[in-house]
Design goal:
Pfam families: CO_deh_flav_C, FAD_binding_5. InterPro entries: CO_DH_flav_C, CO_DH_flav_C_dom_sf, Diverse_Substr_Oxidored, FAD-bd_PCMH, FAD-bd_PCMH-like_sf, FAD-bd_PCMH_sub1, FAD-bd_PCMH_sub2, Mopterin_DH_FAD-bd. One of its GO terms (molecular function) is FAD binding. The chain has 13 helices and twelve strands. The protein is of the alpha+beta class and 328 residues long. Among the domains are: 1-53, Uridine Diphospho-n-acetylenolpyruvylglucosamine Reductase, domain 2 (2-Layer Sandwich), CATH 3.30.43.10; 226-326, 2-Layer Sandwich (Enolase-like, domain 1), CATH 3.30.390. The strands form three sheets. The protein has a five-stranded antiparallel beta sheet with strand order 4-5-8-6-7. It has a four-stranded antiparallel beta sheet with strand order 9-10-11-12, with helices on both faces. Strands 1-3-2 form a three-stranded parallel beta sheet, with no helix packed on it. Helix 2 links the parallel strand 2 and strand 3 (46-49). The radius of gyration is 19 Å and the shape is globular.
Length: 328
């Protein structure tokens, strides 16, 4: 690990000021950043510790939603009774990720900013446009079983690793960020970027901007929601395919549906085509499968990850079938 300067921010303004220069990273739980620094992938000149800032509470919003501070620990968010009752997919997503010890350290803000687990990103001997722009992408013709099949480009096929972010995408969450120009609100759908020809630019954050909170809007359908994660082993494994889904049915017709996918794209993937086809239609297995197949029709697969398209269709169908049996 190379030497770096360390700043313990006393308040938000100090944190933002300290991050104005190049080569600065914010430190929350450190469960991803510290690993990347040890591996020599992240090499900040300055680390700004924000753990003392007052962003560790979950508050009710007048609208009926929740405001979640960026420093709320994943374990605390998963255990919150309001989250478990009103947004069960969020709690389930968190509990399916990492280990209990890591969830006790990891923060909501850090979860939004964690980087891909593509093996070529971690291997300095491999070409990776995300780690070194212009180097190439060895995953294209290499071991690509865990890589993305939606939203990819010729420059990068790395999959986004977060479970929580998939649930937040399905719920139309809003990310609050603070920078030199003040506070702004970024829809979750716009927070993460697809790779295009600049896979090293992963989010909509401007240099020096700090994530301060995430807002969950009221969503009655979210009370009937699930997060289903398919992986190689039952614990401490990233998703091959995951589905965050919420469903509301009245008189046999779907009146609201929220659907997002993980493990299949470089960002949490909102399944807008599937939602469009399902809304107003019947809540039956045939409709669920047709919508899932339409969503995956644009998949770009390779020999190693072609199974993900079929797996995603099956997982979407199974998750919606389960929700359809409990919908009101």
């Amino acid at each position: 690990m190379r030497p770096f300067a360390y700043v313990k921010a006393a308040d938000v303004d100090e944190a933002v000021r300290a991050a104005t220069g190049p080569g600065v990273k914010f430190l929350g739980g450190g469960t991803n950043l510290v690993d990347l620094m040890r591996e020599g992938i992240e090499r900040p000149d300055t680390v700004v510790d924000v753990t003392g800032l007052p962003f560790d509470t979950i508050e009710e919003l007048p609208s009926g939603g929740l405001r979640i501070g960026a420093l709320v620990r994943n374990s605390a968010l998963a255990a919150d009774a309001r989250v478990r009752t009103r947004y069960p997919m969020v709690s389930q997503a968190l509990l399916s990720g990492a280990s209990a010890q890591l969830r006790n350290m990891a923060t909501v803000g850090g979860n939004l900013l964690q980087r891909t687990r593509c093996p070529y990103f971690y291997d300095h001997a491999s070409a990776c446009n995300k780690r070194e722009p212009g180097a190439g992408c060895d995953a294209l013709g290499g071991f690509n079983r865990s890589t993305a099949i939606l939203g990819v480009s010729e420059h990068c096929i790395a999959a986004h690793p977060s479970d929580l972010c998939v649930a937040l995408a399905a719920l139309d969450a809003i990310v609050e960020v603070r920078g030199q120009d003040g506070t702004r609100r970024v829809p979750m759908a716009d927070f993460h970027r697809l790779p295009g020809d600049t896979p090293d630019i992963e989010t909509a954050l401007a240099p020096g901007e700090l994530v301060t909170a995430v807002e969950l809007p009221p969503a009655p359908a979210a009370a009937n929601s699930r997060y289903r994660k398919v992986r190689d082993r039952a614990s401490y494994a990233f998703a091959l395919v995951s589905v965050a889904a919420a469903l509301e049915v009245r008189d046999g017709a779907i009146t609201d549906v929220r659907l997002a996918l993980g493990g299949v794209a470089p960002k949490p993937w909102r399944a807008t085509e599937a939602e469009r086809l399902l809304l107003g239609g019947p809540a039956d297995e045939g409709a669920f499968r047709r919508a899932a197949e339409a969503e995956l029709a644009s998949a770009t697969t390779r020999d190693g990850n072609a199974f993900k398209a079929r797996l995603a269709v099956a997982t979407i169908t199974a998750t919606l079938r389960e929700l359809g049996g409990t919908a009101r």
